[in-house]
């Protein structure tokens, strides 16, 4: 993660409730934020769907399964 992303992650109350007291709290909040950002957030340039929905639609249009990671 880069600086602005870390700041957004720590300042947001969507992913965690209350102050981050330990390194484990920070790691948990970061993992949750990254999951939301990469998979579930609605993205304006993708037609207000999540990145994962867009990717699945792309591979469905190609009549292929998405690659496994």
From TrEMBL:
It holds the Pfam family rve_3. Residues 11-51 form the Integrase catalytic domain. This is Integrase catalytic domain-containing protein.
């Amino acid at each position: 993660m880069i600086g602005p992303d870390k700041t957004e992650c720590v300042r947001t109350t969507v992913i965690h409730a209350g102050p981050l007291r330990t390194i484990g709290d920070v790691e948990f909040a970061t993992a949750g934020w990254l999951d939301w950002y990469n998979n579930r957030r609605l993205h304006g340039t993708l037609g207000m769907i999540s990145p994962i929905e867009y990717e699945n639609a792309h591979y469905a249009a190609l009549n292929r399964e998405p690659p496994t990671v």
